[in-house]
Design a protein that fits this description.
Farnesyl Diphosphate Synthase; two-stranded antiparallel ribbon; 2 strands
Length: 325
């Protein structure tokens, strides 16, 4: 069995050695660029981590299938950054900022195609189930992004609406990554389903952590400008929870802050943060992150995995949820 460090190196080397130096350069250079500027690469790493729980032989077909997850994920980031008008990603200029919107859209589209190309190279056990899982997940991620954009124009959303949105936008791709690893290794179906649920709950914890870091993180570590979610009125866990807890006076103040234009971004961030702090939103977010991490482990607690397998999944969960970037 590989160590987590060895699996991480396999993923990093595979991404670094992808052959994307083609013409036209304005189509492929942005793809090389976004894949080269780092990122946590958690989806292919989770896929290989789960695969390795059941199978020691990680061949090229398995690696390519895992890479399809990372290529698809980065395709969504390129397009998300255009929609969010984000200037930086992983401390570097976003693709649309470094080139332009049209190039970014087309390069993203190409990455989507490449993701399915890499996935199609896997022709082992459960290959049809894996392809179906991936396509359903890809459609779900787009649905989640549309909900995210729709919600930007609403004054508030319910917590159920928020959880459904991030379940689609974030959690199902992490769940897909976990289950793909189990399916490729030929694990029993009840184990595959339990590991999917593990990935889903972990994905919820991951996104709440991301929301938390956008307000309470260190921009020099986080890799993105702190406060962008507040500046764009993004419906995060923090804002959604805040809307549940405010009294009438706080609600009026919060709505006034959310109406502020870009010229007042610092005032807006400071004002919203003051309301968050008065309601202890920071600590409530941490509690929820821990709650969903525990739900992830509960999902696999009784599916037949041994203590060593459960320990590996627990360590991966902690790596995702107790992070500063």
């Amino acid at each position: 069995m590989y160590t987590q460090e060895e699996l991480d190196k396999i993923v990093d080397n595979a991404i670094n050695n992808l052959s994307i130096d083609k013409e036209p350069h304005n189509l492929y250079q942005p793809i090389e660029y976004i894949l080269s500027i780092g990122g946590k690469r958690i989806r292919p790493k989770l896929c290989l981590t789960v695969f390795n729980l059941f199978d020691k032989e990680i061949d090229r077909r398995v690696i390519n299938a895992a890479l399809s997850l990372e290529v698809f994920h980065n395709f969504t980031l390129i397009h998300d950054d255009i929609m969010d008008r984000a200037d930086t990603r992983r401390k570097m200029p976003t693709v649309h900022k470094k080139w332009n919107d049209n190039i970014a859209i087309l390069s993203g589209d190409t990455m989507n195609v490449l993701a399915f190309k890499y996935l199609s190279s896997f022709d082992g056990v459960n290959d049809k189930e894996i392809f179906s899982l991936f396509t359903d997940t890809a459609a779900g991620v787009c649905e989640g992004q549309q909900f995210d954009m729709d919600y930007e124009n609403l004054p508030f959303i319910s917590m159920d609406e928020y959880l459904n949105m991030i379940g689609l936008k974030t959690a199902i791709l992490i769940a897909c990554s976990a289950k793909m690893g189990a399916l490729m290794a030929g694990a029993p179906i009840q184990v595959c389903d339990a590991i999917y649920q593990y990935g889903y709950e972990l994905g919820i914890a991951f996104q709440i952590t991301d929301d938390y870091l956008d307000t309470y993180g260190d921009s020099s570590v986080f890799g993105k400008k702190i406060g962008n979610d507040i500046a764009t009125n993004k419906k995060t866990w923090l804002l959604t929870k805040c809307m549940q807890l405010v009294d009438d006076k706080q609600r009026s103040a919060l709505n006034s802050l959310l109406d502020l234009k870009d010229d007042y971004s610092e005032q807006k961030f400071a004002g919203v943060l003051e309301i968050y702090n008065s309601l202890e939103i920071k600590y409530k977010a941490i509690e929820q992150i821990e709650y969903y991490e525990s739900r992830a482990m509960e999902a696999v607690a009784h599916c037949g995995l041994d203590d060593r397998q459960l320990e590996i999944l627990a360590n991966f969960a902690k790596m995702l949820t107790y992070r500063n970037s």
